[in-house]
Structure formats: structure tokens, C-alpha cells
Amino acid sequence: MASPDQAAATATPGAAIPPSRPEFSARAVRWFRLNQDRLRALLIGTASLLMFLIAWHLLTTYRVVFVVKFTNVPAPLAVYASFTKAIHDPKFLMHILLSCRRIFIGFSLAAIVGVPLGLIMGRFRLVHEIVFPVAEVLRPIPAIAWVPMAIMLWPTNEQSIVFITFLGSFFPILLNTLHGMTLVDPVLVRAAKCLGARETAIFREVYFPASLPHIFTGLTVGMGVAWVSLIAAEMISGQFGIGYFTWEAYSLVQYADIALGMIAIGVLGLGSSLVIRAAGQLVMPWRSR
Predict the structure, then answer these.
(1) pTM passes above 0.85
(2) Nearest to residue 171, comparing CAs of 99, 228, 100, 210?
(3) Which of 77, 106, 145, 225 is deepest in the core (most CB within 10 A)?
């Protein structure tokens, strides 16, 4: 019978040796140390959501009236029952898909126009002097005020809603991109010029990378404002969409559906912002390090 040493000697040379328990424990400890901040944030966030649900349940169960009335607010279980019913309804899914399509089109157009325009305004003073006053006059106008004008400007409600969504996200993207351009270190620009870089190379290698953090900040803020603008437009002039679903539920006195629509808007907005943050980490890996 072969001894353990002989068996080890006759083992296949390329066979993988499973890691020992001490090595596995060391890797687990190292992973925990590297991700302890994320785990802590996840635990605190989960606990915060649970506390919110418990408080919501207690306030609606006992119909608390203290400054704010919770007599007609639906309980979490009622909203969950409405959710289980809605996910099997193709009409509810169509509302969500139409809102997501409007957000995608309006936000994409705002990013395509806002980012290059902000870069150009930050680089050329004449363009800044021409565009900035007009942008500052239009920027404070809320999305609801644009609804009648958008209906007159565009031939269909769909185009007018996309236009309002575009306006809501355009100005945060433009201003944050412009702010990022103003913070570019002029020493880097002079160094690039001394090395013989032309204007296009300076834009590509200096201005754009230095402005990326502010650009993605503008994209994140613009996505939130885009959802606000979209919901306002759908409530007033839309016939489909999650905003229209929420307003229709209010008109039909379906309180659980109102809360369901609000939660759906929050979840969709959160998911959109997370997608932008993930894209920012891919484009700017040096920030995550």
C-alpha cells in the first residue's frame, strides 16, 4: 500500500489543489476588510427601510392624526396586494414601459446636446456669452409651466412629453458640464500646448477627462429631474405612463394604486440613477481606486 508521500508524488502534475481552510479564511477576512464600508452601508440602508415600513404600518393601522392625517393612507399590505394584482395586468406593465421609453429618449437627447454644448461654452467665451443668458432665463421655468407650450409646439402628446423630459434633464447636465470646464487646471492646458497638442487633442486629453466627474454629477441630477418632469407631464397631458396611472388612481379613489404608482416612480428613478453611477465607475476607474 502506497504511503501518503508516495501518493502525493504520483499525483497528476497539473491537478489543482483546493485551498486550505486557513488560506480561505485569510481571503474571507481580506474581502471583508475591503468591503466593510459597503456592507455597513447595506446593513444600515436595509435597517432604515425596515424601520420605515414598520412606522408606515403602525401609522396607518392606528390611523394616527398628528398634523398629518393617516386616516386614508393605505397600509403596506394593501399596497402589496395591489402590486401582486398589477404585475399580472399588461396595462400596468405598458405604463411602466412607456415611461421608461420616454425617459430614455428625452434623457439621451439632453445628454447628447447638453454635454458637448457645456464643453464648448466652457472653452469659448463668445459661445458662453451667447448661450448662457438664454439658458438662465429658461432654466427656472418648471416643467408644469411648459406643458401648454409643449402641446402647442409639438403635433402629438408623445412628442410634447418627451420634450418636457428633455428640458428637465438638459439644464442640470449643461450647467454641471460647464462647471467642470471652469475647474480644469490651466497648468494642464499650458503643459499640453507646450507639448504641441492641438485644440482637438486638448479637448480629448485634458478638458474632457477633467470634466467627467462633474458631467456624471449632472447626468445623475438630470435623471432625477427628468423623472419629475415626466410625471408632471404624464399627469396633465398623458394618456399612458406611470404618472398617468397614479393620477387615474387618484381620480378613481384607489388609494393603494396611488401608493403603488409613487413607489414605482421611486424605484424606477433609483434604478436609473444606479445605472448612471455604474457607468461613471466604468468610465472613471481611477475614482473608485
Answers:
(1) no
(2) 228
(3) 106
61-108 per-position pLDDT tens digit: 898 888 888 888 999 999 999 999 999 989 999 999 999 999 999 999
CB under 8 Å to 258, separation ≥6 — which residues? 74, 246, 249, 250
Joined grid coordinates for residue 34: 475591503
Residue in the block written with cell 396611472: 245
